[in-house]
Amino acid sequence: MGLLGLSLAPANTVLIEDGKKILVDPGARELGSWGVLESRLKELGLTPNDIDIVVNTHLHSDHAGSNFIFRGKKLIVHEKELLSSSKHSWPEFREACVKALRTEKISGDTKLTEDVKVLTTPGHTIGSLSVTVDTPNGLVAIVGDAFSSKEEYLNRKISGAWVEDKETSLKSIDKLRKLSPKTIIPGHSSPFSI
């Protein structure tokens, strides 16, 4: 079992190794276009070809813009997110960052491997997802933009302006809190421990 944050601003990108290599949120288009993501993978002895599954917590370009370098790989995304993005995204974005991969739409919580699960955590967007990884050091939750900080998580308070549904966001926080993760990796800030 391996879990490695790649620290590729502006959105956090996480590589999970649990029998399969799973990349959560490849990041903005520039990371792929400028070779930053491939360079970081190379430092780990990997190429985009070595990645088995890409998971997008949601289809905003800062999280999914570099999907295109994983052409032909399996992409996990919520079916409501696909529908919503078809109404709000440029056709070129969908062509390069969604249709170029083998899209697997999910509608509910889904187990990817023995220790890796994808959870529905809507609120930021209608089809937002989080990924949990059961590690020897406790549960790790990769939450995308479900919330942005430890304070929001602990105080059950959403302060971000980019939330489609605040009440649903709070329910998603409650869902994650019930799991008692030991480490949380938000979409844009540093990981924190509970």
Tag the structure with descriptive keywords.
27% helix; 27% strand; 7 helices; six-stranded mixed β-sheet; alpha/beta; 194 residues; 12 strands; Metallo-beta-lactamase, Chain A
Give the topology, please.
Blueprint: E1 2-5, E2 14-17, E3 21-24, H1 29-33, H2 36-43, E4 53-55, H3 61-64, E5 74-78, H4 79-88, H5 91-97, E6 102-106, E7 110-111, E8 116-120, E9 129-135, E10 138-144, H6 150-155, H7 166-178, E11 183-186, E12 192-193
What is CATH's topology name?
Metallo-beta-lactamase, Chain A
Oligomer: single chain
Helical percentage: 25-40%
Strand content: 25-35%
Order of adjacent strands in the largest pleated sheet: 1-2-3-4-5-6
Q: Please write the CATH class name.
A: Alpha Beta
Q: Determine the CATH superfamily.
A: Ribonuclease Z/Hydroxyacylglutathione hydrolase-like
What is the CATH architecture assignment? Answer: 4-Layer Sandwich
Measured between the Cα atoms of the first and last residue, the distance is: 21 Å
* Low-confidence sequence ranges: none
Which structural class do the helices and strands define? alpha/beta
Write the H/E string, N to C: EEEHHEHEHHEEEEEHHEE
